[in-house]
Design goal:
Layout lengths: L11 H12 L3 H10 L15 H11 L1 H10 L8 H8 L10 H12 L7 E4 L5 E2 L3 E8 L4 E7 L3 H19 L3 H6 L1 H16 L1 H16 L9 E2 L12 E5 L4 E2 L7 H22 L1 E3 L7 E3 L8 E3 L5 E3 L2 H15 L3 H11 L1 E2 L5 H15 L9 H14 L2 E2 L2 H20 L5 H17 L5 H30 L12 H34 L9 H29 L1
Parallel strand pairs: 5-10
Antiparallel strand pairs: 1-3, 2-3, 3-4, 4-6, 7-9, 8-11, 9-10, 12-13
Helix pairs in contact: 3-4, 3-5, 7-9, 11-16, 11-17, 12-13, 12-17, 13-14, 14-15, 15-16, 18-19, 19-20
C-alpha cells in the first residue's frame, strides 16, 4: 500500500501509476514523492490538480477503471471547475469488442447450459462495447429479439486491484490540503460503490424493473408513452443481462415536424424530472444514446435503455433538492442558499449571508433573460460553483442530478431550440410540493408531517426554561437576574403551551381534512372504512381541542 513512508517504484500496478503520473508532469505529485523520500530542495509545491488536459491524459493511459473515474468526476461540478468538467466529459470507454470465442464461454458458464438451449441465435459480432462489457443482438427460442449484455472476462479482478491502489493514493494525500479540499477517501469510496454496482448485472436488471414500475403510470404523460425494456430473468445473472430489444431511432436523430419535436422534448424533460423530484431514483446517464423515439403517427413514445448507472436520493435529500428547485424556479435566493447549506457539509464556518447574496446576484443575472433563453443546467452549474468556492462539500447525488438535467436539457434544445425548461419544470416542482404535503407513502406519514410543527412547539417551553436556567447559572457566559423572574418564566411557559396546543389543534384539523381530501390517493394498510374513520377522528379531535382552548381563553380573559 502507498504510504508516506513506503512509496513503491519497483513493481506492480502502483509503480505503473506513479510512472504515468510523473511522466505527464503533475508537479505536485512529483514534489510530494520527492519530499517523502527525503530528496534535497524538494519542498512540496502548492496543492493543485493537474491541468484539465493532463488529468484527462493520465486517466486514459491508466485504463478502464480510471476512465470510469473520470466519467464520474465529470458529473461533479460541485468539486471541479467548468474547464475540468468539459475535458472529462469527452472521456469515452472506447475499447474494441472481444471475439466471440472469448465471450461464448462466459455465456454458457453463467447460464449453466449450451447457448443453443438459451437462444435461437446470437450475432457473434458485438453491436456495442465498453470497458465493463459488450452487447450482442440475439433471439430467444420463441423468436423474441433481445439485447444480450456480457461482462468482459477478468474485468472484475482488474477493477478490484485498481480500487485498492486508488484507496492507497487517497490515503497518501488524506493529510494534505489537496486531500482535505476534495475529501479523496470519501470520493474513492463513492466511486467504488458505483463501479462495483455496475459490475453486478442483476442490480442493473433490478434498476430496470424499478424504473419501469415508477414510470408506467404517471399523471405527467399518457399510458404507454414511456417504455423501458423488459428483463428476461431466466437468462440474466451477475455477468449476463438479457433485455427486450428496442427498435427505434436515437432521439437526436429523429425527423419529426416541429410540433412533435416540441412534444417529444417536453416528454423527455418530464421523464427525467419525475425520476429526480417525485421518485428519488433516477437514470444517472440520460444521454442521447440512451433515449430512443419509438412513436408513430398516432402517439409520441419514448424508450429509455441502459439502466446500469442510477442514483437514489434519500427522502431528506430529495426534499431539500425540491426546496432548491423551488428557490430557482420562483427566484428565491434565500431559499436556494439555505437548501445548499442543508445539502452540503462544511468543515469551516461559512458566511450564509454572503452565500445568499451570491445566489441573489446569480438569479438576477439569469432571470433578466426570457424563460426560453434560460439554460437551467448552466444555472445549476453556476449555483454549485458557489458552495465549491465556500468549501461546502455536496453529496455525489447532486452532481449526478445536475448531469442528468444538463443531458436532458441538451436533448430538449436539440429538438426545440427555444425549449422553455423552467416552464416545463414548474408543474413537476409543484407536484413535488403536493407530494410532500400529502406524502402518499403512508397514512402515518401524512399525519406525522402535519403534526410535526405542533410537537416541536410543545417542546419550546421546556427549552426556554432550560435556557433561562443556564443563563441564571452563567453557563453561557452571561449572568442575568431580574425581578419576578419565576413569574415571567411561568407566564411564558403557559403561553407557549397554549400556542403548542393551538398548533396541535390546527394540525389535527389540517391532517383530518387532507386525509379526507386525499381519499384513495393515500396508501394505507387499513381498510377504506377504517381509513375514513381515522380521518374523521383526527379532524374531530382537532376541532374539539380548538373549541376547548377557545372556551378556556374566554373564561380566563
Amino acid at each position: 500500500m502507498l504510504s508516506r513512508t513506503n512509496i513503491p517504484f519497483g513493481f506492480g500496478r502502483q509503480a505503473e501509476i506513479v510512472e504515468v503520473v510523473v511522466r505527464n508532469g503533475w508537479d505536485y505529485f512529483r514534489s510530494r514523492l520527492a519530499f517523502i523520500n527525503g530528496q534535497l530542495n524538494s519542498k512540496p509545491t502548492e496543492p493543485s490538480l493537474p491541468l484539465p488536459d493532463v488529468l484527462k491524459q493520465i486517466l486514459i493511459e491508466l485504463g478502464p477503471t480510471f476512465v470510469k473515474l473520470g466519467q464520474i468526476l465529470s458529473t461533479r461540478p460541485d468539486l471541479l471547475a467548468p474547464e475540468y468538467i468539459e475535458a472529462l466529459e469527452t472521456l469515452q470507454s472506447d475499447v474494441p469488442g472481444l471475439s466471440w470465442s472469448e465471450i461464448a464461454p462466459i455465456l454458457e458458464a453463467e447460464l449453466s447450459k449450451p447457448i443453443v438451449d438459451s437462444y435461437a441465435e446470437v450475432e457473434e459480432k458485438a453491436i456495442a462495447a465498453g470497458s465493463l462489457g459488450q452487447v450482442h443482438k440475439g433471439k430467444l427460442l420463441d423468436g423474441q429479439v433481445v439485447a444480450i449484455k456480457v461482462q468482459r472476462p477478468g474485468i472484475q479482478r482488474i477493477i478490484e486491484e485498481d480500487l485498492e491502489v486508488l484507496r492507497s493514493l487517497a490515503q497518501f494525500f488524506s493529510g494534505d490540503a489537496l486531500g482535505e479540499a476534495y475529501d479523496l477517501e470519501a470520493l474513492v469510496e463513492e466511486f467504488s460503490n458505483s463501479i462495483t454496482g455496475e459490475l453486478d448485472f442483476t442490480r442493473e436488471a433490478r434498476n430496470t424493473e424499478e424504473l419501469t414500475n415508477n414510470l408506467a403510470n404517471s399523471e405527467l404523460w399518457k399510458p404507454g408513452q414511456v417504455i423501458i425494456p423488459k428483463v428476461y430473468w431466466q437468462l440474466t445473472s451477475t455477468k449476463v443481462l438479457t433485455l427486450e430489444w428496442i427498435d427505434g431511432v436515437k432521439i437526436n436523430q429523429t425527423e419529426l415536424p416541429a410540433p412533435k419535436r416540441k412534444e417529444l422534448a417536453a416528454l423527455a424533460a418530464k421523464v427525467v424530472m419525475q425520476q429526480i423530484l417525485l421518485d428519488g431514483f433516477f437514470h444517472a446517464d440520460p444521454h442521447p444514446g440512451n433515449f430512443f423515439y419509438v412513436g408513430d403517427d398516432k402517439q409520441i413514445r419514448l424508450a429509455m435503455i441502459d439502466c446500469g448507472m442510477v442514483s437514489r436520493m434519500d427522502p431528506r435529500t430529495k426534499s431539500i433538492l425540491t426546496d432548491l428547485l423551488i428557490g430557482i424556479v420562483y427566484e428565491q435566493p434565500r431559499q436556494v442558499a439555505q437548501a445548499v447549506r442543508e445539502l452540503g457539509f462544511a468543515k469551516l464556518a461559512i458566511d450564509i449571508k454572503a452565500i445568499e447574496s451570491a445566489f441573489d446576484r446569480l438569479l438576477r443575472r439569469f432571470y433578466t433573460r426570457p424563460l426560453e433563453e434560460i439554460d437551467l443546467s448552466e444555472l445549476l452549474n453556476e449555483a454549485l460553483r458557489i458552495p465549491r468556492e465556500n468549501k461546502i462539500q455536496m453529496p455525489g447525488s447532486i452532481g449526478l442530478f445536475v448531469k442528468a438535467i444538463a443531458n436532458v436539457e441538451g436533448i430538449a434544445r436539440n429538438l426545440d431550440p427555444l425549449f422553455p425548461f423552467i416552464d416545463v419544470a414548474r408543474p413537476v416542482v409543484e407536484k413535488a410540493i403536493q407530494q410532500r404535503i400529502l406524502n402518499s407513502a403512508s397514512l402515518q406519514s401524512v399525519t406525522y408531517n402535519s403534526l410535526y410543527l405542533s410537537r416541536a412547539l410543545i417542546q419550546i417551553p421546556q427549552q426556554i426554561e432550560t435556557l433561562a436556567d443556564r443563563l441564571e447559572r452563567s453557563e453561557l457566559g452571561l449572568n442575568l437576574n431580574w425581578q419576578d423572574q419565576e413569574s415571567f418564566q411561568r407566564s411564558l411557559s403557559r403561553s407557549f403551551r397554549r400556542l403548542g396546543l393551538a398548533m396541535l389543534a390546527v394540525g389535527g384539523m389540517l391532517s383530518g381534512s387532507m386525509l379526507l381530501a386525499a381519499g384513495d390517493r393515500v396508501n394505507s394498510t387499513l381498510s377504506p372504512n377504517l381509513s375514513l374513520i381515522w380521518s374523521e377522528a383526527v379532524l374531530v379531535a382537532g376541532l374539539a381541542l380548538g373549541i376547548w382552548l377557545l372556551v378556556e381563553y374566554i373564561v380566563k380573559s
